[in-house]
Amino acid sequence: MRSPLILLTCQVLLILRVKAEESHCTSVAGMVKLLDLEAQLIDNLDDYARELEKKLEIVKRSVTSMRLENDRARGSTEEYLSNPLNSFSLIRRMNRDWMIWQLFMDDPVGITQMEKIQELREHMPTNTDVEEAVTALDRIQSTYGLKVAEIAHGLLNGKQYNVSLTALDTYALGQILFDQGNYAAAAAWLYQSLVLNEVFTVAAPLEISKSEVQMVYAESLLKLNQNADALKVVNIALTDKPHDIKLLLKKSEIETMIRTGSNNAPQLKVQNAVGVTAYQMGCRGQFPPSVDGRLHCLYNRTTTPFLTLAPLKMELVGLDPYMAIYHEVLSAKEIAELQGMATPGLKRATVFQASSGRNEVVKTRTSKVAWFPDTYSPLTVRLNARIADMTGFNLLGSEMLQLMNYGLGGHYDKHYDFFNQTNSNLTLMSGDRIATVLFYLTDVEQGGATVFPNIQKAVFPQRGSVIMWYNLKDDGVPNTQTLHAACPVIVGSKWVCNKWIREREQLFRRPCLKK
Fold first, then answer.
1. Under a CB-based contact definition with an 8 Å cutoff, are residues 482 and 415 in contact?
2. What is the tens place of the pLDDT at every residue in 199-223?
3. Please, what is the Cα angle at 261 between 256 and 265, to 5 degrees?
4. Mind listing the pLDDT tens digit for each residue in 228-264?
5. Strand 484-486 to strand 450-452: parallel, antiparallel, or no bridges (unpaired)?
6. Domain residue spans of the chain
7. Which of 295, 332, 334 lies closest to 314 in space, CA to CA?
8. Which fold has domain 126-265?
9. Cβ-Cβ contacts under 8 Å for 46 (sequence gap 6 or more)
10. What does the alpha-carbon distance between residue 104 and residue 95 come to, in Å, rounded to a whole number?
11. 280-506 has CATH 1.10.10.10 classification
């Protein structure tokens, strides 16, 4: 029988593990519960407001505005959370605003409501979640070449949405990007915060100090060696607070730097010195169309005998590596069933690290995944049979089906699917990954393409379609032309399902031909 101490330790470790795996912004499906949680917090705040006559007006006004946003979100949850601005604002306000509300409520009156917030904080986004959300928005902005001012006003990649960021949102973006050393982006967002604060004043108790934002903005400009502009910002701040000692000291410091020609800021690396990368071009849909006359569309009737009766719509899109798209492979019912299977068990995606020999969470891959054995359900059995029909491969020894959902700015940076480690335990039993089969379960309103930068091909998600390609050449050598990436999702909920097929069982299906 286990001792109470061991049981308690196990429970604590389980709680910590669950908390670590929540990773709110990496999956749209995983963020749905945040709206319900926010609704509970708003109700709790409403109860507190009724007990505080002196604070009633402030609290009631806040409850009304927050409830309108939450009701609008819960009225169309998928659409709301698919927009990265809504997702970021939701995570940021729950991480920061509610902490401020907790302090505001710190009074002998309303203790019950305070305890409720503390209880719910266990399930709220952490500082890490907010930092990941900031990184995601910055990734969207840089990958697609968007303007910060347009993002702040809901104009995403040329399309206007009925959503915008607040001065609090933009200030948080600027602060965190500054802490991350991304000073150019930080300066742009801090400037937007100042602009928005002039137009839409933030109500108590969430108001922010204008001089505080100006100070961080000036620091960002100093890091960018823009001393004269930083001095202008400090002088503007002094018009409102002429006797502020911090501002006066900063002004004196900047004037000395300008006079002596010195700068304490580190030398910054020039960003985007080579212009737009092939990866960015692919994400933006700027690759030139293929002119290879050998690429064509057909009904595939020959890969397996079954296709003679039920041919598949096939589009040949590449020969090196061999790459084909199959259209209308999944039905709406099958897609819904796959999403229903995966949602309860979604966990943060990991990447195998050769240095450690383990799968680890990395910043280059932001999504949540769920794995299913081939015989998990009648649907997974049918899905694997369909994969065999499309590829002609034997799936014995291949990896399980992996379902993925991408969240705010969800992406997977450039990578190869093959291992190329002949002595590794990963390839010892079943060989390397000879082919990849990727199902698109949803359309994506904007972004989310699968890009192959070396061969300048981009495939944008189409609901029910499949892309498959060979990772190994005819002689079994890894094909470096298969370098690929999943572009950041701008707007939408991207669901995919993939299967990695191993080479060992393909001895008679696709023999290794030595050159």
1. no
2. 888 888 888 899 999 999 999 999 9
3. 85
4. 999 999 999 999 999 999 999 999 999 999 998 876 5
5. antiparallel
6. 21-125, 126-265, 280-506
7. 295
8. 1.25.40
9. 63
10. 15
11. no
